[in-house]
Amino acid sequence: MSTPATIVRPGEPDLPAVYSSVESEVRSYCRNWPATMAHAQGSWVTDVSGRRYLDFFAGAGALNYGHNNPILKQPLLDYLSSDMIVHSLDMATEAKTRFLETFERLILRPRGLDYKVQFPGPTGANTVEAALKLARKVTGRESIISFTNAFHGMTLGALSVTGNSMKRAGAGIPLVHATPMPYDNYFGGVTEDFHWFERVLDDSGSGLNRPAAVIVETVQGEGGLNVARVEWLRGLAELCQRREILLIVDDVQMGCGRTGPFFSFEEAGIVPDIVTLSKSISGYGLPMALTLFRRQLDVWTPGEHNGTFRGHNPAFVTAAKALETYWETETFVEDTLAKGRRVRERLVGIAGNHPGVTARGRGMAQGLKFEDAAVAGAAAGAAFERGLLVETSGPADEVIKLLPPLTTSEEDLDSGIDILAEAIAVTVA
Amino acid sequence: MSTPATIVRPGEPDLPAVYSSVESEVRSYCRNWPATMAHAQGSWVTDVSGRRYLDFFAGAGALNYGHNNPILKQPLLDYLSSDMIVHSLDMATEAKTRFLETFERLILRPRGLDYKVQFPGPTGANTVEAALKLARKVTGRESIISFTNAFHGMTLGALSVTGNSMKRAGAGIPLVHATPMPYDNYFGGVTEDFHWFERVLDDSGSGLNRPAAVIVETVQGEGGLNVARVEWLRGLAELCQRREILLIVDDVQMGCGRTGPFFSFEEAGIVPDIVTLSKSISGYGLPMALTLFRRQLDVWTPGEHNGTFRGHNPAFVTAAKALETYWETETFVEDTLAKGRRVRERLVGIAGNHPGVTARGRGMAQGLKFEDAAVAGAAAGAAFERGLLVETSGPADEVIKLLPPLTTSEEDLDSGIDILAEAIAVTVA
Amino acid sequence: MSTPATIVRPGEPDLPAVYSSVESEVRSYCRNWPATMAHAQGSWVTDVSGRRYLDFFAGAGALNYGHNNPILKQPLLDYLSSDMIVHSLDMATEAKTRFLETFERLILRPRGLDYKVQFPGPTGANTVEAALKLARKVTGRESIISFTNAFHGMTLGALSVTGNSMKRAGAGIPLVHATPMPYDNYFGGVTEDFHWFERVLDDSGSGLNRPAAVIVETVQGEGGLNVARVEWLRGLAELCQRREILLIVDDVQMGCGRTGPFFSFEEAGIVPDIVTLSKSISGYGLPMALTLFRRQLDVWTPGEHNGTFRGHNPAFVTAAKALETYWETETFVEDTLAKGRRVRERLVGIAGNHPGVTARGRGMAQGLKFEDAAVAGAAAGAAFERGLLVETSGPADEVIKLLPPLTTSEEDLDSGIDILAEAIAVTVA
Amino acid sequence: MSTPATIVRPGEPDLPAVYSSVESEVRSYCRNWPATMAHAQGSWVTDVSGRRYLDFFAGAGALNYGHNNPILKQPLLDYLSSDMIVHSLDMATEAKTRFLETFERLILRPRGLDYKVQFPGPTGANTVEAALKLARKVTGRESIISFTNAFHGMTLGALSVTGNSMKRAGAGIPLVHATPMPYDNYFGGVTEDFHWFERVLDDSGSGLNRPAAVIVETVQGEGGLNVARVEWLRGLAELCQRREILLIVDDVQMGCGRTGPFFSFEEAGIVPDIVTLSKSISGYGLPMALTLFRRQLDVWTPGEHNGTFRGHNPAFVTAAKALETYWETETFVEDTLAKGRRVRERLVGIAGNHPGVTARGRGMAQGLKFEDAAVAGAAAGAAFERGLLVETSGPADEVIKLLPPLTTSEEDLDSGIDILAEAIAVTVA
């Protein structure tokens, strides 16, 4: 979802005229990938000319189970065909009941998470907004601590805790009530963890407004695949608990198994106060989002946060089926971790061949960081020309970020990385 | 989407336990309508017990063409069955191309609207946020004028221009940069239009921050079916133009034909600078939203406002089909207006039988206002028990609001109103 | 203190070079009155060339007892000569004790005002800031209601409740947490008092943030000598009381007898929750300010609001002496009211001779409003050339405002008004 | 000006009743020093009982030339006796001309400072507010960088850049548009200077709003006598210049010779963009303040920032005389530095006798920091009982701060420190 700042193209000659004549200049991906997509299956997308692309982008993390996963597709078609209710706001429906029961049975209960579940509207920004509102309501404080290079969304509340200066400028008003703190390893390991954060919290003369909450991604996808160490996350959780600050983990991109376990924070053994989920929760790329929070924090008044598309039943159908399919056993987690290691090894190899390139990531969120950001952009462009969809992220778009579907076969993983290796090689040559 | 303040129920004994044990207290509609919905067709919903409900609520305006409209359903099933791409962010896709071309051909061009189209994320709040950001960016000003009893959404930017104090309190921070002005007829016709607004705009000593934009609904649905007269809307548009303030019409609920014409502002003959659409734009209750604005205002940087679910192709498919089906000719507009008159006549009749009750609305957004708000709530409850879904709105939930699908047959309209009449009669008896 | 927008002069050729070479462009009065002042006595000022000016400006209301009043001067000289302590922060001093006891004995007790007294720093802006902070702390709410054309000061909190758009622009940040309401007679008497204000307060859907306090001037001096009727003030006080909103009367310019009684609100028979005083409270033009509030509102923590110049003992000395001299009996009030009537009669006469000119004011705050603002400015300039200091005020500087010392003799009042009449006559001729 | 949190006293039994019955609970110094002051001369204050106090507090830095300095007193008495104008807003006066010319001749010109001079209202908070407004107006940015444990004043703009949490809470609204950075040595020298500040400035993804200005004290008096090294100040100035951020030095307490040179930043050889002065600028404890800024930054519109007490002529008289008396030659600077060394040596000696006590300060702003804050408060109380006025500062009031008049004799300096040593000895015993 980064800005295509580094890939300058002369227009979209291959796209229908309506894109340049009618769609707003804000359009972004169609500029980098000037093809009209038609079909999609698993890790593959086909454009109208029949050209096939291996998709290591996967809806920016919204397609962890691949495009049009047939296991999820059938119940979706059955549901729609039989005229089961599609749109229901927050009424009770069979599909919603089944999703809630499945989510509790397969996700919450086995992990000992005594969370309530809110349907805050079907996007990541909606769930982040709900999380921030709830944290402020519960604590009676206004300020939120965010982290450098965080990404949480484009609505005003979510944008105020987002780092990217170009996107922040889009707000048109000063974004306040949020203070950035250094993310793990921001200073290359030189500086002790939290020494600035803890010091200003404990110093009554520091001038820092006492925060309601900390919002953190365990791995910053849009921020350039920055990975927080588990000990850093534990330290952060302990810091929040000691000082009665709520900990919000934004798991919109890294949740639903992207890093291996269902929640990306499981590896650290922490229990956030509030968790946001979206992107891959429906499993089929359908809009859906959840806000989870400790039962004691459920101070909402009925209807205090509402929205028209909270009851998107087709998404509940595929979401429940995805949970039943992939999360009954540990197999999926193990497969993801194994695939992640495989990808990582290959990336380390590529990095070894190119000075100024380093591998980074966790689980199946892996990538390469380029000292020269222009190379990252050019290599991503060369990959597209070779049939691989990968995007850049990071403040200077200096990181090629791989988010392949978790269901991608080992062969396809290898093929994609072969293409990437070649794209980098021709770029730096 | 109002708060069910007036209908107090002892719990949700008829709902599966997971709703009270796992879903957040914020849930709302399932409290008033404690049934688990299963099937839906046109204007009818059936619960798991086989009980049928005539739906005069229609997804809070998201189902103008009825539930699971078969004309839209078939292309949706075809699209999904054939593995056409479902999730595509803002890449070009066949479905998106067809939607854009159809929208331009059937909606923009015939109305002489030289608008650009933004896909801001698939909800009403997303499009309102995009509209406010753009207005601020274009003008370099921060302040927005909203109206008493406005409803624009739950995210921070949208909430700041929303009137409802309970929902505003949910923000947990002071909501600033917005100033409310009196909506049309706020003082019962006693006060001249805009005399306060114009005076403070023109008085350099008034203390009003010069606004970037005015955001207005032509009919306030959530605010209690308050209808702005066309001359008031024209006066507002002229006022904005003279003073170089952008006019945003939030047509999320009243657009897509709810009041007759596609855009609710057409009757007034005005051309807003920015228009928001969502709810019924997909035609099938699928999450989708658009932000439209005059071509000259398209100052967005690529990617400056983004989001994961901007490319929800199933919604594009049904949206294009809905436009082709209902908006090629004037028939649908005429039918809607005729049905609206029919409903209005019946409501005037009911109001005539009950002191303290008055009819209000425009097109197929009609309702009854009760001097005693408790009666409105109780009557809505009695209607539910008789198989009719209607909700209350207004600051005290004093208005029963009818938003039947525009495709509802005359017979069903009559039946529904018969039920409503009876529900009111037993309530006041 | 208005901006000299209407009097354009070619520079300050008569002033020492250091004013244009070293003093900031923000300087203002020395542009309209390009003379270097040397001596001052009572209602007269003499410049370095020996030219005398009759001063109907009186330090913008800071010199109600005239320049260098000999009754106050002697104790001031005695105090300084005998090395009594001059600067003492908020330590106890003899001068402070005497002032507090005198203020309680002559001002608070006779009027039945059970107020606590805060020394917030020695300027009007300081006391307004203290008043707003206290109101917010007491109520836990952030929003303040101000009035059109209000003037309360230049610091950030005071500026946010000030109307003038040029001065507001000086803030460089959006001024929030304040909403303007129409001052009395803002619509020429056509609109019922408070109908907008009360309606938005009582309407839970209005979108108005519930205010902590209302801040009001009983007569808006800088705003153009707008006079609130006593019944309007009473209505406002009752409105605040019914809705538990604190009422702050900013009496910085109109207090200390300017309108007759010591507090300008006495005529209305209301008891504000908080009162600000400054300008003439020291009696000698020395910096001093007070914040008064009902005893129950004194929730300050020791030192929570501090400042270096809260213990300006020379000001306490002259302040106590001024109270003892002028406020033991009713004579001073009666004299002021009589003089005010005299001035008003003459102004009504002048207005009668000139179409488009009207008289306005209360007590000894009187003036003339010109339909053509340029005439007001030119006439003030012509008055200066004839030896009379008067300033313009109002959003367009369309009002000539007379604030003569209350001690001005009847002869001087007549002379000054003769000059003004001539200045207007030559201007409009 | 710190909060007397650590010295709890049973009331003010020795003060006249009017202090507890009428003055607000916000009163502070009179609680710690429960004596009614009468006379004052040089470094000595005498209370009504005839008891004498050696004053090492000096009006919190407002009395650098001592109480009622006879050299300044005579021209003040002459001015007042001869009825020269006292109050003049920003008209030209003889006293103001002389002050401006003297300030330019003795302060600005010899230091090569091409500054314009603004009279922003007579307090430190007023000048800080003017500085912040100007910085925002010039840059078009809103955000300000402040430092941990900064103190800049109690009005809303000044308070937002102040660190103390108790004082911030007094605002009653969230204080925004300011971000604290670590002051020099905040981490005990472990962390490299500015590494956090520079990193977030340069990282376009950091989430830090690009600041208009940095506001800094070269020595934080209220913050606990934290001394910034000259190399840190130089680094800060270079950082600001490279990134086009304005540098504001708040010299309200440390200016006018407190650290030796007239401006405290001279030692570092830097030239701030904006400088604030107040406290000792009048030389006699009379309210007065200046805002100085580079000529190119003088973008004020006439009257855009105004105020009633900007023309406090008695203060101009003593200010000019103080400059002529003390700042024609280098003698005063050298004396101050010598006295500062003398005080420092003694404090180092005391610290050597008491574990957990360290000496700190610069020039004649010297003090002792106590690991056990309670000891600092108790020792200050014991000093008062022995006839020495010293206050505590720092976030926990853990520092005894000495700000003796710069004119204090060496004998008095020694006597005062003898008392302090004894007070500490009896406290820790």
From TrEMBL, chains A, B, C, D:
Pathway, per record: Amine and polyamine biosynthesis; ectoine biosynthesis; L-ectoine from L-aspartate 4-semialdehyde: step 1/3
**What's its top-level EC category?**
transferase
| Biological process terms in GO annotation | ectoine biosynthetic process
- Which Gene Ontology terms cover its molecular function? diaminobutyrate-2-oxoglutarate transaminase activity; diaminobutyrate-pyruvate transaminase activity; pyridoxal phosphate binding
Q: In this record, what's one Pfam family? A: Aminotran_3
Q: What is its EC number?
A: 2.6.1.76
Q: Tell me which UniProt keywords the record has, alphabetically.
A: Aminotransferase, Pyridoxal phosphate, Transferase
Q: Which cofactor does it need?
A: pyridoxal 5'-phosphate
Record InterPro entries: Aminotrans_3, Aminotrans_3_PPA_site, Dat, Ectoine_EctB, PyrdxlP-dep_Trfase, PyrdxlP-dep_Trfase_major, PyrdxlP-dep_Trfase_small
Family label: Belongs to the class-III pyridoxal-phosphate-dependent aminotransferase family.
Listed name of the protein: Diaminobutyrate--2-oxoglutarate transaminase
The organism is Mycolicibacterium vanbaalenii (strain DSM 7251 / JCM 13017 / BCRC 16820 / KCTC 9966 / NRRL B-24157 / PYR-1)
